[in-house]
UniProtKB/TrEMBL annotation:
It comes from Actinoplanes lutulentus. Pfam families: TctC. InterPro entries: BUG, Bug_dom1. Residues 1-24 form the signal peptide. PROSITE patterns: PROKAR_LIPOPROTEIN (PS51257). This is Tripartite-type tricarboxylate transporter receptor subunit TctC. Belongs to the UPF0065 (bug) family. Keywords: Receptor, Signal. It comes from the Bacteria.
Length: 338
């Protein structure tokens, strides 16, 4: 059963920015609900459930401009942070299903049900999938002056200093949290975790030396790794990342169990008219074929998904598979939902 919808207000702390203005008329909050023919007749909001400046936000802002151009409308990106991405996702689950509130989420959509007793939304029932966007490798990174020199040294160091080493993440349900869980399970340690509203601010603290290490997407860490402001120990994909050729994979570094890529997708509330979902998916495909988007993603260690994956059906099938996969991995790791 769908939960009661809230009016289109999203958390007061939200930060907003207008991405682009094309030909569509901006008539504020009005507009015919579910009118696919004239869509879009007002601003479309893409909710990012993490902080501005972080990796989910970065990918969203890359595609918002070309998507808006393809739709002939305006797109606003709104950051609704909290609880590992579940606050923003919950807001979109309860929004009007009229195509004007869209969610950008990542792998956390498939892991949160295994991590929360009462999530407040159901990934498959409360959302319609629009399309996959990208799949981003993670890096295991540390403050530049953190003692361990290699990934193997890191494992030895955290085992010997479990009481004092700090591990940053973006809250329970975030990709950084998941990667941290897998790391701790594989290393057999329990570390002190420091949650942030997103890995944008976590990275700032890592550069500043306030926390010791974390996992995060290459879309956030690449620049700081290359500038030698942080140390990179490993990438969490089976192959090395082209833009970070010197960084070994976790498998090469002796921890093949730490394997995770952060897939992203766009969602709208369930019951959004299928014609509107199709228009959004078409605009997503156009944005992902944009050479500027491809180039920006390549610089940050990732790439757009294929046109076939930027579709509602492919996205839904992936979500279904990932929900099953992560439920098992998380429970096998002995993690209890909180
Ligand atoms: N990378 C973050 C995570 O750990 C989210 C973000 O700030 O985009 O899920």
């Amino acid at each position: 059963m769908r939960m009661k919808r809230r009016p289109r207000i999203i958390a007061a702390l939200a930060t907003v920015s207008l991405i682009t203005a094309c030909s569509g008329n901006d008539d504020g909050d009005g507009g015919a609900e579910g009118d696919a023919a004239g869509y879009p007749e007002q601003n479309i909001t893409i909710v990012v459930p993490f902080s501005a400046g972080g990796p989910t936000d970065t990918v969203t802002r890359m595609i918002a401009d070309p998507m808006a151009a393809a739709l002939g409308g305006k797109i606003v990106v709104r950051n609704v942070e909290g609880a590992g991405g579940t606050v923003g996702a919950g807001d979109v689950a309860r929004a009007e299903p009229d195509g004007y509130t869209v969610l950008m989420h990542h792998i956390g959509m498939s892991t949160a049900p295994a991590l929360y007793k009462d999530l407040g939304y159901r990934p498959l029932e409360d959302f319609a999938t629009v399309g996959l966007v990208t799949e981003v490798p993670m890096t295991v990174v540390a403050r530049q002056d953190f003692a361990p020199a290699t990934f193997q040294d890191l494992v030895t160091h955290v085992k010997a200093n479990a009481g004092t080493v700090t591990l940053a993440n973006a809250g329970i349900g975030a990709a950084s949290h998941l990667c941290g869980l897998l790391f701790q399970a594989a290393a057999g340690v329990k570390l002190q975790e420091v949650p942030y509203q997103g890995t944008g601010p976590a990275l700032t603290d890592l550069v500043g030396g306030q926390v010791d290490f974390m996992c995060d997407q290459t879309t956030n860490t690449s620049g700081q790794i290359t500038a030698k402001k942080i140390k990179a120990y490993a990438v969490t994909t089976p192959q090395r990342v082209q833009s970070l050729p010197d960084v070994p994979t976790t498998a090469e570094a002796g921890m093949p169990q730490l394997a995770v890529s952060v897939w992203h997708g766009l969602y709208v509330p369930a019951d959004t008219p299928p014609e509107i979902v199709e228009k959004l998916s078409g605009a997503l495909k156009t944005a992902l074929a944009d050479q500027a988007v491809i180039d920006q993603m390549a610089k940050l260690g990732t790439a757009p998904v294929t046109a076939a994956d930027a579709t509602p059906d492919a996205h839904r099938a992936h979500l279904e598979e990932q929900l099953t996969t992560w439920q098992k991995i998380i429970s096998d790791a002995g993690v209890q939902p909180s």
